[in-house]
Design goal:
This protein is α+β, with helices and mostly antiparallel strands. The protein has a single domain, classed as Nuclear Transport Factor 2, Chain: A (Roll), CATH 3.10.450.100. It contains five helices and four strands.
Length: 175
């Protein structure tokens, strides 16, 4: 074969490689955008779990008062979608940590939490997580899946499924 043929093949190959490289850079830009969004969603998820599960026992009280519940719910509301917040509030979920802290007479603290992302789009993010919730010398390992949606430019928790029965067991055992 002629020299011109090999030069032609080399030029085509080089152009093809350059085109692939340009396309690859564009994918990195899109991935970076999604990664930034996932980081923001993960930060919201972390804030939510801390506000939902961390609590101190009330001072000199034998019961949780409505003001404590209202204060807790107010701090959580901005992190969730309206539907999810209303459902959790109606089910008294945001009282659980307060009640467990009162029963155990100990602070509830998340001492470890790890999130893994899955099913990520620009408007939704599903995170699986594992957390350690400590109260005194005792601890619970929590495993769950949280879904966040982008609403009005902000990430909001729209669902959170985890082994909450372990917390309810503390509350119900001492009722």
């Amino acid at each position: 074969m002629s020299k011109k043929y090999y030069i032609f093949i080399a030029i085509i190959t080089l152009c093809s490689i350059m085109l692939d490289a340009c396309s690859y850079r564009e994918e990195i830009k899109n991935t970076s955008n999604v990664t930034t969004q996932v980081s923001t969603a993960t930060n919201i998820a972390l804030k939510y779990k801390l506000k939902e599960l961390e609590a101190a026992p009330p001072d000199n009280a034998k019961e949780i008062n409505p003001e404590q519940i209202a204060k807790r719910e107010k701090s959580i509301k901005s992190l969730t979608t309206k539907e999810f917040f209303d459902k959790q509030s109606a089910d008294h979920v945001y009282e659980w940590a307060l009640r467990a802290a009162l029963i155990k007479q100990s602070d509830l603290k998340i001492t470890y939490i790890s999130f893994r992302r899955s099913n990520v789009t620009e408007d939704s993010s599903e995170l699986t997580y594992e957390a350690t919730l400590r109260f005194g010398e005792e601890k619970l390992t929590l495993n769950g899946t949280m879904t966040l949606l982008k609403e009005g430019g902000s990430w909001k928790v729209n669902d959170d499924q985890y082994n909450a029965d372990d917390i309810l067991e503390i509350i119900n055992t001492n009722d």
